[in-house]
Amino acid sequence: MAELEESQGNAEDQAKRLQVLMVEKHRLAGEVEELTEDKKRMAKQLADLRDEVAKLKAELRRLGAQLREAEQALLVARSDAKQLRLDVKGLEDVQDPDGVFESRPSQRRLLKECAHREAILLDRLRTCEAEAAGQRQRLLELEGTDRLAEQPEGAVLAPASEIGLLPAERRRRAHLERERDALLQFLRDKEHEMYQVKEEAFNTLWESKRKAAQEFYNFKTKELAKIRADFQRQMDLLTRENDILKREVAIADEIGPHLPTLNPLTSVDDPAKMC
User: C-alpha dihedral over 182, 185, 190, 191, to 10 degrees?
Assistant: First the structure.
């Protein structure tokens, strides 16, 4: 107002200049409001992006935990492989470099010797079983096989003092054999079921590790790069708009002192066309 009062010209020229300055002021105020709204919107988008980055960090921590578990499994596998290599070395004979002592036999040779001994003992066992079967047959011929059939129904649970020692032993052996067969079948079923559960658990674990590794690789190579590029593009756009606003404000500051010295505008019917 002080500059307008000190400027040269009559009151009509000063009124026109004041009107021009008021229109320019309203235009700049509108631009400032738009820029403020853009700033708020970009701040909200930045907060959303930060939330998304926090979620991605949590997912990365989860995948890192799975990766550590996979590394532990890999270490266990390497330890097993090392033990297997040591076992393979144990299959070879260890020679004395000086030739003073005898060479240490390998596990392969020991296994062959054990197999030979097992074959000999198995032959002896079969011979003993054959002899025992002959003795059993002779005992059945002497004792008779119809003794239990001649007994009444209640004699099945009768003590050995009433039905004899051998029939009681046969009865006990028959019960034990039935129990043994039932237990063996139960153990076979449980062993088969345990093997199936183990295979399913291994396959499930392997598939989960493979899927997690694939998802982590896809996220690391594609999704994260896409998010960074989008964020960088938005920041570049905001930086450019901010630079444009700074340049406009600088220009306004530069031409502000020179406005009173400008020539007066001609009469314009439409005040909106004065700018």
Answer: 140
Q: Do residues 66 and 212 lie in contact, with contact meaning Cβ atoms separated by under 8 Å?
A: yes
pLDDT of 100-153, one tens digit each?
555 666 667 778 888 888 999 999 999 999 988 888 777 665 554 444 444 444
pTM exceeds 0.90: no
d(CA 272, CA 220): 55
Q: Residue 104: beta bridge partners?
A: 94
CA–CA separation, 30 and 38 (whole Å): 12
For residue 98, report the phi and psi dihedrals to the nearest 5 degrees.
-85, -15
Cα separation, 134 vs 128, whole angstroms: 10
The one-character DSSP state at 155 is: G
Compute the distance between CA of residue 246 and CA of residue 3 in angstroms, rounded to an integer: 25
CA distance 246 to 31: 12
